[in-house]
Amino acid sequence: MFEVFSRSYYLGRLYVTPTDGEHALMHSEQHERINEEVYATGDGLERLDTPLVMKFESRHFPVHGAANVPTNTLAVPESMLEGTDVRNPPSLREVFLARRDRARQLLDLAGGWQASGDGGSADDLRNAGT
């Protein structure tokens, strides 16, 4: 689904579609698998529900897992799609997935991450590093 793009990002293609929610979402099993492959270090027991950090067009944002999102789909809050050229959703689009070190940098710039996944300061990540 994702391939190496640069030292900081993987490049993938997902169907981008708007959602009414406050967070970007993708299918929970895909989210967990990508989390394990990209963010896990292999040192001991690690959480696999940590948000992924993705970039679509010029915005970075955390992506959570949800069982009700179709596979290969990135559901993005409508407010985050304003100003993009997504015209006929779902639209197959290129998206970037931040590698572990880059994600950590972006989260540091945004003031950290609340591990509970309740949003918190993660909403500030939308424009981090752009």
If you compute it from the alpha carbons, what radius of gyration comes out, rounded to the nearest whole angstrom? Answer: 14 Å
Q: Which class in CATH terms?
A: Mainly Beta
Low-confidence stretches: 113-130
Q: How would the global form be characterised?
A: globular
The end-to-end span amounts to 24 Å
What is the number of strand segments?
7
Largest sheet: 7 strands, mixed
- Proportion of helical residues: 10-25%
Strand content: 25-35%
CATH topology: Barwin-like endoglucanases
Shape-level CATH architecture: Beta Barrel
InterPro entries: DUF5802 (IPR043825)
Question: How are the elements arranged and paired?
Answer:
Layout: E1 2-4, E2 9-19, E3 24-27, H1 28-38, E4 52-56, E5 59-66, E6 73-77, H2 78-81, E7 91-98, H3 100-109
Parallel strand pairs: 2-6, 3-5
Antiparallel strand pairs: 1-2, 2-7, 4-5, 4-7
Pfam families: DUF5802
InterPro entries: DUF5802
Provide an overview of this structure.
- With 130 residues, the chain is of the alpha/beta class.
- The chain has one domain (1-108): Barwin-like endoglucanases.
- Helix content is 19%, strand content 34%.
- The protein is built from three helices and seven strands; from the N terminus they run βββαβββαβα.
- Strands 1, 2, 3, 4, 5, 6 and 7 form a seven-stranded mixed sheet that branches.
- The chain starts with a strand and ends in a 21-residue tail after the last helix.
- The model is unreliable at 113-130 (pLDDT under 50).
- InterPro entries: DUF5802.
- It holds the Pfam family DUF5802.
